[in-house]
Amino acid sequence: MRRRHEPHITDEGTPASGAIRPHRRTFLTQGALLAGATVGGLVSQTSGSRAAEFPPEWRRRPGRSFVAYGTPSPFEAKVGRLLPVRPAGHPTPGAGASFTPLEQLHGIITPNGLHYERSHSGVPDIDPARHELIVHGLVRRPLVFTVDALLRYPTVSRVYFLECTGNSLAGFPATSPAGPLGRMHGLISCAEWTGVPLATLLDEAGVDPRARWMLAEGIDGSGMSRSLPLDKAMDDVLVALYQNGERLRPEQGYPVRLFVPGFEGNLSVKWLHRIKVTEGPTYTKDETSKYTDLLPDGRALQFTLRMDVKSTITRPATGLTMQGPGLYEVSGLAWSGTGRIRRVEVSADGGKSWADATLQEPVLPRALTRFRLPWKWPGGPAILASRATDERGEVQPTREQLVAARGLRSVNHYNAISICHVGGDGQVTSAWA
């Protein structure tokens, strides 16, 4: 059994040298210090620009009227997806990914407009009245479903994360990249997905006893296609039609996509138009030339489909400046393709000592889990890290452990512990190790 190091606690019950203090009551006993210069809940009109005029203009006139579709406040215009960085003249402008700004979000649900994107040939504009989903192969009765027909089936809703297999791929090189946290780990998002269980459609078609796999194919310009074990397809896979209560957006596969919980994001084929039931994997161009994992000895792993246990601290994160010594909250996200997160530990000294964080409800299988822990920053340099354990007992590895097993030639399934540095001046920078 792995031994867990406990933080050193002084006689007064306060962690020494900025270590993590695992007590929620910390904010109750010291939180009043965060209130600042307030008196009776009111700020003095001479205390600065925030109260230069009272009442403010928005108190003195009616606000704007209703709109057909709501948008964020203009004061939040800085919150947006991080767009791809690629040389001018790239041969396929629509190929690439945009990243979710994890450091800008709270809770576990990603708004639809901030959900990461991954496309191989741009985003098609598909007329749902002309789109069809074909189910064929080793079935007794091949079927063709219109979108209208699919919308008439009973649906289920589930909260799941979706993670690109290349998320955090820059962790394999020895040097840590610069930039916001979202550009490092932002190829992951979490939403409520609503759709028809794939098992319902396969049962209706009648699966041949010889069948063990299936092929899912999209109708975008790249013809993306992936093989999936049939036992997974019959378990919890959805033919998704809605995301966070609204119809799928084009960049998320409108009018219909596959959703494969806990597996590589690429398997959740967007713009889904064909499912072929087969005896074995199809070995498509997408799963042989791209979604394989190179090993140090030159061999390659195929069909490493499940996403591993992982976590990252989202606050404090790159771009934040600590406003002087005192009480802060360390917060982040943890997830696992296996199921629920069972435990998250946080360190303030680069992994020399660890303390258990509080897991914020709900803690759902194959969904993001928010963790939180009070931290009293003494004002000097600190190294924050998080380490997740899932319900199967799998523990997030160090970078050294991951590289020893996988080498440096892969670009997929990087799930090692990452850290962030807090400088003596309060500047926060994220890093891999």
- At the first level of CATH, what is the class of the largest domain? Alpha Beta
Number of structural domains: 2
Beta-strand percent range: 25-35%
CATH H-level superfamily of the largest domain: Oxidoreductase, molybdopterin-binding domain
Q: What is the CATH architecture descriptor of the largest domain?
A: Alpha-Beta Complex
Distance between the termini: 25 Å
Derived structural class = mainly beta
- What is the tally of helical segments? 7
The mean pLDDT is 87
The fold-level CATH name of the largest domain is Sulfite Oxidase, Chain A, domain 2
The arrangement of helices and strands along the chain is: HEEEEHEHEHEEHEEEEHEEEEEEEEEHEE
The percent of residues in helical segments reads: under 10%
Q: Tell me how many strands there are.
A: 23
| Strand order of the biggest β-sheet | 4-3-12-7-8
Shape: globular
Rg from alpha-carbon coordinates: 24 Å
Largest sheet: 5 strands, mixed
Stretches where pLDDT is under 50 for at least 5 consecutive residues are 1-17, 35-47
